[in-house]
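Fig. S4 source data, part A: sequence.
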Amino acid sequence: MGAMRFSTIGYENRYNPALNIAGTDAFIQSLTVGMPPAPDHFARCSDINRQGPALVRTLPVLKVLTPAQFHAEMQRDDTIVVDIRSYTAFGGQHIPGSYHIDISGNFPTNAGWVLPPEKDILLVTEIPVEAREAREAVTYLRRVGLDRAIGYLEGGTHAWVSAGYETDTVPQLSPEKVHAKLQEEGTVLVDVRAADEYNIQHIPEAVNILTMDLRTRAAELDPARPTIVMCGSGIRSSLASSLLKQQGFTDVSNAAGGMRGYIAAGFFPA
């Protein structure tokens, strides 16, 4: 894998590290040891490619839904809400139970990793670019085998609350507030970066659980304790916050700016 769009056999033989591994055993080890976790959609898309994908003309046409229509659709058991705005917007107010996957981050990979493919998807976008963002999100979702996006909320969360519907929040903590809260007894810091990132540098008291693994490992944490979620920037940790909220965690905060901001503020290393 590389950034070049084309290459030559001679160039690859000379410079490609994988082609310069001496011995079969060493080559096998390089491909099987220390590999990063594979997103859910890797296996799913392999099956889709074997069978042949659905034709675009057969897929749902994205609908613009009023708050009342959106509310009615989300009551169905086979439907989920995916908020694709920035983590600051999501933290300010969002529809309870929704997933947060920032479209400015690694949206296709994150969506393909955590969203259940058997569910219809309702989108919450940023106004006034809601239609463009929704169409962009649908394209990304289809690329990872998620073909069931059916509509987006007209007017965003502003229209939602103006129609009288409930919202939830995730406090966005600056590095200074993260540092202060970590001094309080009982606060749990969950570092949701990959293990290799965590091993390079991390806050000593942090518990390392990969964002996507919180779907199955949240039971390792105490939902009654104040929980701060941190990644490198604040984007993955916001997704992690939404996963914890879905599982009954009530006191969840996102470390805005992530580890990068915490270091820039001078709090790490101590």
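Fig. S4 source data, part B ends here. Residues 172-264 form a domain with the Oxidized Rhodanese; domain 1 fold (CATH 3.40.250.10).
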